[in-house]
Design a protein that fits this description.
The complex is a heterodimer of chains A (444) and B (728).
Chain A (H helix, E strand, L loop, with lengths): L8 E8 L9 E5 L4 H12 L7 E5 L2 E2 L4 H8 L7 E7 L2 E9 L5 E8 L3 E6 L3 E6 L4 E6 L5 E7 L7 E8 L3 E8 L9 E9 L5 E6 L5 E6 L3 E6 L15 H10 L5 E3 L3 E4 L5 E6 L5 E6 L3 E6 L4 E7 L5 E6 L5 E6 L3 E6 L12 E4 L4 E5 L8 E6 L3 E6 L8 E4 L11 E7 L2 E6 L2 E8 L2 H5 L1
Parallel strand pairs in A: 1-5, 14-18
Antiparallel strand pairs in A: 1-2, 3-4, 3-5, 6-34, 7-8, 8-9, 9-10, 11-12, 12-13, 13-14, 15-16, 16-17, 17-19, 20-21, 21-22, 22-23, 24-25, 25-26, 26-27, 28-29, 29-30, 30-31, 32-33, 33-34
Chain B lengths: L1 H11 L16 H12 L7 H12 L3 H10 L7 E4 L6 E4 L33 E4 L5 E3 L6 H10 L6 E4 L4 E4 L2 H11 L43 H16 L55 H9 L26 H14 L12 H4 L15 E7 L5 E6 L5 E6 L3 E6 L5 E6 L4 E6 L8 E5 L2 E5 L6 H11 L15 E4 L12 E4 L7 E6 L5 E6 L7 E5 L4 E3 L11 E4 L5 E5 L4 E5 L4 E6 L6 E6 L5 E6 L4 E5 L8 E3 L6 E6 L5 E6 L3 E8 L9 E9 L9 E6 L6 E5 L3 E6 L1
Antiparallel strand pairs in B: 1-2, 3-4, 5-6, 7-35, 8-9, 9-10, 10-11, 12-13, 13-14, 14-16, 15-16, 17-18, 18-19, 19-20, 21-22, 22-23, 23-24, 25-26, 26-27, 27-28, 29-30, 30-31, 31-32, 33-34, 34-35
Helix pairs in contact in B: 3-4
Classes of the chains: A mainly beta (444), B alpha+beta (728).
Chain lengths: 444, 728
């Protein structure tokens, strides 16, 4: 169907994992075609009602120029049949809004059902924003810099949200945030519990899918497992020196946050644990640390079931792919490595994919809606990059946060990606970018 | 030949024919007479040989015939030997010459009398000359070529005739002339009268001719009959030698008389180089010509310059000169001098074969492992923290490697996370920050900041309660320890533990006034003692403070040179003190000098000791870095010079085998330094990486480098106000 006279053409077989498969037959494609013509070909062949742009992967590389240029670069003969995989292309990222902060933002969360953003700032405040850049609430949860914030999902829909935050002050805290439906009423917050285990600043806090348990990771190499129920009594004793004075005050002040003790402590890391997350069903936990290991934990029994021991790769952040079979970990040697836990234990030390960055990648995020292969990373050079794991040679697209405000490019400390929206937190505050999915996905 | 002769003779001499006795030999009238005379005078006392000769002539055909012919064919008349009547001796008598018809050439009929002139003058004329009467002698008629040919065939004497130009006709050669030609052809003496075999004449020998009288009247010498003593000596010498066996007469033939063969290729080829050929002299150029082109002639300036320079410095040892001809070229005046110096060259600088070293230059480079096999080490700048362009001279990383504290010359001290680079707290002090240093203890956590004549002890925020309590109890104890016996000029002032916070120093040490800015703080590994070096004068500026006893002391009453740096030994009670040129090692327990290290650096700038305590590196402002093996020698084991500007800081990694040095050229160099417990194995030092990223400001580059404990990360502070973290 694509036969043109006078031009050289190349035999091509199309494959896809999208919902738009072409019949598996050999096409003769003119070598002067680019992505646009190929995308038009797929659209016309399928006679789609609304045109969908596609991107094309030729042997694990995204086609950027013409087919002839690609063949010349790889010195592929004209007779060889090429297998081209296509997927829905990623729209160029668009900046939606900018949420300025006075201090650095260490963590940003977009998980709040599309309505709000939560940011954790180095000034100790957790802030909630809506989509119109309006500050809904600012809660001073900690006196020390915050390092991580997450929303504890709740099964019952209510206007009260439970938020977990981790800080340099050696504790994590649970805060209830009441965000009224209409914006005229003021939002309110109350810190209900503080989690006492760690003897060093905390690095991350994460909740499981049902909102029953929390994981905290700390610089002292421990991972705490907590439940989210708030008991009436202090589970952990207060610290010694201020005991007497505080106890008197406790009786007077009922609103004082309750001290919680961990359900279990996961000990195996020999250095700072930089991130600990639950998998989707909440039975297993994954953690990574500065001791160059990624560990898989059986939370129920509190034992380490699997360990990836990389060599000299202190890991900074970790994200699980939506299917939960592999983990993506950023390390200070400027790579983001993918470890597939289905592989045999002996092969675990070698990453299945390695994405090289020009600067230290500090954070990584995946979106369930964006599919199995895509991820975003934020690096210390201020760039947020969108990668496709099928094409590891270069990023699919990238954008720079705070290009206008910070000249040298501030460090990106946190990215979160949900429903086509990437929240970027770092040196210059927070920026919201629309990445990946179409506008429909954002709106519904 | 012989027969031809005969033929010729027949034709010629018909008139002589009848007188001939020997038909083979042609004789002329002279020889005829002779023979007759000889025969006639047979009665004379002729010798036998002569007679025999004649007889021989008759008998033999060839050789003697020739001889007789020679005799016969004389041009001159042969002399006759007769016995003189008067003397009785034989004498030669020549026959009288008869003026007969053909004896004189004048009687010959030579019609042409033109003389010896070129005859071609008459070529065009009908005559060939004039006769004696002045009549023209007409050119004889000459036949054509056919006639000539016929003549040669018919006339047998044609081949012995020659063309006579004078008469313009062929003239037959005479017998004498033919004989002369024949002799010349046979390389014989042309004179037929010459007899090479003349009989010898015995003058002195033979009967009756003996000498009767001796020639000399001298008496017979004694040696003629006395045996020679000298000969006897010589003979006795030989006899003695034979007796003693030194000479073996009749030496027995060794194996056999057979010739000995040997394989000339049997031996190994000689290793000795063949004698060198003399070097070839350079070929002369145009300038050395006696008549060089004009452009080779020196100008006046060049000539002056050439004459002005010394002989040894001249580019060439002559000046080109122009001569019109080779014969005008004078003798070479330098010849003797040149030969002499050549001889000097030959015997003072004999030619030797210079053994050229065939060494691959790469093989001289020590075999070092590749840097990629020595990972991890810092390779890139991960992040940086800005100090608002104030020079950052002080930098320290906490013992757990999570925090870094840096102080600049504006008095700002910042505490920041190493991995994020976020400054979480900042203190402002009046004056420059000379040094900051974390206490190496892990049960307490605090750091010391050195400001003008003060040491401030600061507790960082967000400590776990047990650590905070222990720190407060250490630095601000409720009950002060007993005052030392000798009061120290250093004042220790604490704020109460309850009132203390991380905003203000919990403890302040006031050094005596005019002691200057402390530029270095070093902790003992146990964290109880710390030593400071002040820039000011007096007491060497060195103080050792003990935190638990709240006591300070000056260890040196008087020190040679100004002290630059001090250092505690990590395991032993030893104390390193670096002056400008020397590093002295003291034993603090025994209070004595152990050794003095001489790095050979003009001004020491930085120093660090290996965590094992056996190795010391010293850097200097003169760009050198010396590695000392303390058990080996007082001299450096290795001197490295790789920075282009002065070294500012060196630091050993506490756990990894790494060290780093920073310099005013704005670069940091990272080395792999593996030391072995084995005393025989030398430390392995491998340069790994040059980290560039700091900008040089006012001639100052990277002022301080520190490693992160537990991680192969490097923190560096520069004069450009940036503090950078370098990650692997």
């Amino acid at each position: 169907m694509a036969s043109t006279s006078g031009e050289t053409s190349h035999p091509v077989v199309f494959t896809t994992q999208t919902a738009y498969p072409l019949p598996s037959q050999k096409f003769m494609i003119p070598t002067s075609w680019r992505r646009y013509q190929l995308s038009q070909l797929v659209n016309k062949a399928l006679s789609l009602p609304k045109p969908i742009p596609f991107d094309f992967l030729v042997r694990g590389e995204i086609l950027r120029g013409t087919l002839a240029e690609w063949c010349a670069e790889k010195s592929i003969g004209e007779e060889e049949t090429l297998e081209i995989e296509y997927f829905e292309s990623v729209m160029p990222p668009q900046k939606m809004s900018s949420l300025p902060h006075e201090d650095w933002v260490s963590s940003v969360s977009c998980q709040l059902s599309g309505r709000f953003f939560l940011t954790a700032c180095y000034d100790g405040n957790v802030r909630a924003f809506d989509y119109s850049q309006k500050l809904l609430h600012s809660a001073s949860v900690h006196a020390a810099p915050l390092t991580s914030v997450c929303v504890v999902p709740s099964s019952s829909p209510s206007s009260e949200l439970l938020i977990a935050s981790a800080s340099h002050d050696l504790t994590a805290r649970l805060t209830t945030l009441t965000l009224p439906a209409n914006s005229s009423e003021p939002a309110s917050s109350k810190t209900v519990a503080s989690l006492h285990l760690h003897t060093a600043p905390l690095a991350s806090v994460a909740a499981n899918g049902t909102g029953t348990h929390l994981l905290t990771a700390s610089w002292d190499g421990l991972i705490g497992v907590w439940d989210t129920s708030i008991s009436e009594e202090d589970e952990a004793p207060a610290e010694e020196p201020t005991e007497r004075k505080k106890r008197r005050r406790v009786e007077e002040d009922a609103s004082r946050p309750k001290r919680k003790a961990p359900l279990a402590v996961l000990k195996s890391h020999t250095a700072r644990v930089s991130k600990a997350v639950f998998d989707t069903n909440g039975e297993q936990a994954y953690s990574c640390g500065f001791d160059s290991t990624v560990r898989v934990w059986d939370v129920e029994n509190g034992v380490c079931t699997n360990t990836v021991a990389a060599s000299s790769k202190p890991f900074l952040d970790l994200a699980l792919t939506p299917s939960g079979t592999s983990a993506l970990a950023c390390s200070t040697d400027r790579t983001v490595s993918q470890y597939d836990f289905r592989a045999a234990a002996t092969h675990l030390a070698a990453p299945t994919a390695s994405l090289a960055h020009p600067a230290t990648p500090a954070c990584v995020a995946v979106s369930p809606a964006a599919g199995e292969h895509q991820l975003v990373t934020g690096a210390y050079d201020g760039a947020v990059r969108l990668w496709d794991l099928r094409s590891t040679k270069g990023a699919v697209t990238s954008f720079r946060a705070w290009e206008a405000t910070l000249k040298k490019g501030g460090k990106v400390l946190s990215v979160d990606w949900a429903r086509g929206v990437v929240g970027v937190g770092g040196e210059g505050g927070v920026e919201i970018w629309r990445v990946g999915e179409s506008e429909q996905a954002v709106h519904h | 030949m012989h027969s031809e002769d005969e033929g010729g003779d027949e034709a010629e001499d018909e008139d002589d024919g009848e007188a001939e006795q020997f038909p083979e030999i042609d004789t002329r009238s002279d020889s005829e007479d002779e023979n007759e005379n000889e025969n006639g005078s047979a009665a004379d006392a002729e010798e036998d040989e002569d007679v025999e000769d004649d007889e021989d002539d008759e008998e033999e055909e060839d050789e003697s015939e020739v001889d007789t012919e020679d005799d016969d064919l004389r041009i001159y008349p042969k002399p006759k030997t007769v016995i003189s009547d008067i003397t009785g001796q034989p004498k030669r008598v020549y026959p009288e010459i008869e003026a007969d018809y053909d004896s004189d050439s004048s009687t010959e009929d030579t019609p042409n009398r033109v003389g010896n002139i070129p005859m071609h003058w008459y070529d065009d004329l009908p005559h060939v000359g004039y006769d004696v009467n002045g009549k023209k002698v007409l050119r004889p008629a000459r036949g054509d070529e056919l006639d000539k040919f016929l003549e040669t065939v018919e006339d047998p004497s044609a081949w012995t005739s020659a063309f006579d130009k004078n008469t313009q006709r062929d003239k037959p050669l005479t017998e004498e002339e033919l004989d002369l030609i024949r002799r010349l052809q046979e390389n014989e003496n042309p004179d037929s009268a010459y007899d090479p075999y003349e009989p010898t004449i015995e003058w002195f020998t033979g009967k009756g001719k003996e000498e009767v009288m001796p020639l000399s009247g001298a008496p017979e010498p004694k040696r003629r009959w006395v045996p020679s003593k000298w000969e006897k000596q010589k003979i006795m010498k030989i006899v003695r030698a034979i007796r003693q066996g030194r000479i073996i007469p009749n030496k027995p033939k060794t194996a056999s008389t057979q010739p000995q063969f040997y394989n000339i290729w049997n031996d190994e080829p000689s290793n000795v180089a063949p004698p060198l050929p003399a070097p070839k002299p350079r070929l002369p150029t145009n300038a050395e010509s006696y008549n060089p082109p004009e452009e080779y002639l020196p100008t006046e300036e060049e000539r002056k310059q050439w004459e002005g320079t010394d002989k040894e410095d001249r580019e060439r040892d002559f000046l080109p000169q122009k001569y019109g001809a080779l014969r005008l070229v004078p003798a070479y005046d330098q010849f003797i001098q040149e030969r002499f110096s050549r001889q000097l060259d030959l015997y003072l600088a004999p030619r030797v074969q210079r053994v050229k070293l065939q060494i691959d230059p790469n093989s001289l480079i020590p075999k070092l492992p590749s840097p990629s096999s020595l990972k991890p080490f810092p390779v890139y700048k991960s992040l940086h923290v800005s100090h608002d362009a104030h020079r950052v001279r002080a930098l320290s990383v906490s013992p757990d490697g999570a925090w870094a504290v840096s102080g600049d010359e504006n008095g700002n001290v910042g505490l920041w996370e190493v991995m994020v680079g976020k400054e979480v707290k900042r203190w402002k002090f009046p004056g420059k920050v000379g040094a900051v240093e974390w206490c190496p203890r892990t049960d307490v956590s605090f750091f010391v900041v050195a400001i003008e004549e003060h040491l401030h002890f600061i507790v960082p925020p967000n400590l776990p309660t047990p650590v905070l309590v222990a720190t407060q109890a250490l630095l601000a104890p409720a009950t002060l320890p007993p005052a030392p016996a000798t009061p120290s000029p250093v004042k220790w002032v604490s704020t109460a533990a309850a009132a203390s916070s991380s905003d203000l120093p919990i403890l302040t040490l006031s050094l005596p006034s005019s002691s200057g800015l402390p530029k270095q703080i070093v902790w003992h590994r146990k964290g109880d003692y710390l030593s400071t070096v002040s820039s000011g004068e007096g007491q060497g500026g060195v103080w050792i403070h003990q935190v638990s006893r709240r006591h300070s002391q000056a260890p040196f009453r008087k020190v040679k040179g100004s002290i630059q740096l001090v250092l505690f030994h990590p395991t032993k009670p030893h104390f390193f003190v670096a002056t400008q040129r020397y590093v002295r090692m003291y034993n603090l327990a025994e209070q004595k000098l152990l050794k003095t290290l001489t790095p050979g650096i003009r001004w020491i700038s930085c120093m660090d000791v290996h965590p094992s305590g056996d190795h010391l590196i010293v850097g200097g402002y003169d760009r050198k870095l010396c590695w000392f093996d303390l058990e080996l020698s007082d001299k450096p084991y290795k001197i490295l010079r790789y920075h282009t500007r002065a070294l500012r800081a060196v630091h050993f990694h506490p756990t990894y085998p790494l060290f780093a040095s920073s310099s005013d050229d704005g670069s940091i160099q990272v080395f792999h330094a593996r030391v072995y417990n084995d005393l025989m194995t030398n430390p392995l030092i491998v340069p790994l990486k040059i980290l560039r990223g700091h900008t040089v400001k006012e001639g100052l580059g990277v002022l301080q480098v520190r490693w992160c404990p537990r991680q192969p990360w490097l923190v560096s502070a520069g004069a450009d106000g940036e503090v950078a973290v370098w990650c692997s």
